[in-house]
Amino acid sequence: MPEIWAGLDIGKEHHHCVVIDATGERLLSRRVLNDETQLLELIGDVLDLSEDVLWAVDINRGGAALAIGLLLDHEQPLVYLPGLAVHHASAAYRGQGKTDAKDAHIIADQARMRRDLGVLRPGDEVAVDLRLLSSRRADLVCDRTRQINRLRAQLLEIFPGLERVLTLTNQGPVMLLTGYQTPASIRRTGAKRIETWLKNRKVRGPTELARAAVEAAQAQHTALPGEKLAASLVARLAKGVIALNEEIAEVDALIEARFHQHQHAKVINSLPGWAPDSGLSSSQLLVVTWSFSAPPTVWPPSPAWHLFHATPAASAATCDDLTASTADFCEPSTSPRWPA
After folding, report:
1. Strands (DSSP E) along the chain, which ranges?
2. pTM higher than 0.70 for the full model?
3. Beta strands in 214-289 (DSSP E)
4. Which superkingdom does the taxonomy of this entry point to (predicted)?
5. Whole-number Å distance between alpha carbons of 16 and 38
């Protein structure tokens, strides 16, 4: 059992550290800049109090990255107490105010009393790369969703009939909008020429798409105010959606290539139900990879870490059904206890 416990309340620019002994008495309370020099000085001062120390943090990524990296580089034992657990625990402590010093004391005290906190340790290089790529992909997918929603709203203002018949989550309709946006231009071009234009761009189902666009154009002969400018905006938004689709495809290729460099890639590929076309998303793929690599409390964590339904007592996971939905993808198992 450690002699002292150091709690770090993590902030963006500053952290607050409180060190307590076995009786809960404060031995040190300090606010430090999120800077390598000051953090190394803090680690040295804490180790001067006792080398048998257990560190605890309430955030395991973002602003905590530098502090966690330095502690792990110095082979310091480190546990993770989620911020929500700190919030609930604060009700049992004196005082209604919330300060960084109070939170840091709660973190240290909870680490002193509890034996069910997950231990943070470094993740392997491939798993870290997969986390970064998956985070980037999630951002791109959100950007694409926003772009498609803006595209729908803009098209609805000038050509509601076309917006109604197009499925803008498919590549073909979006490609059509890069060249044709108004009823007049579609009627003037005609179904045959639009079909040829789509075929030259390797769009699936060009005949049906061209016919649907012309039928929508035949139903609207009124040019609405601002149509010319709105049409140019629709074309620009459509090109933006296509660019995002291409970037997402590139990231997917990087994820797949990096995944096959993982030490357990062959094992995962041999699992029942696993196949390149099994329908698993890259995020689910990352969850599977991470479950083979380490518990969800390993740092840096996966962006899909919450899919494990992790609680302060959960730091290991088992995956039984690769075809399950992401919400039920993994269930936590009992976490290892801190050695007494």
Report:
1. 4-9, 14-20, 26-33, 53-57, 78-80, 118-119, 314-318, 331-334
2. no
3. none
4. Bacteria
5. 12
All structural domains of the chain: 4-114 (3.30.420.10)
DSSP class per residue in 12-81: SSEEEEEEE-TT--EEEEEEEESSHHHHHHHHHHHHHH-SSEEEEES--SGGGHHHHHHHHHTT--EEE-
Span between the terminal Cα atoms of the chain, in Å: 5
Cα 157 to the center of its chain, rounded Å: 34
- Which two three-digit tokens encode residue 255? 């994820």
**Which candidate, 116, 105, 107, places its Cα nearest to that of 297?**
116
| Residues linked to residue 19 through DSSP beta bridges, in sequence order | 6, 28
State the pairing for strand pair 4-9/78-80: unpaired
Q: Work out whether the CA dihedral 120, 124, 130, 132 comes out positive or negative.
A: positive
pLDDT along the chain (340 residues), means of 10: 93 94 94 95 95 93 90 92 88 81 93 89 77 90 96 95 94 95 95 95 94 95 92 96 95 88 79 58 54 47 38 34 35 38
Cβ pair 4, 21 in contact under 8 A: yes
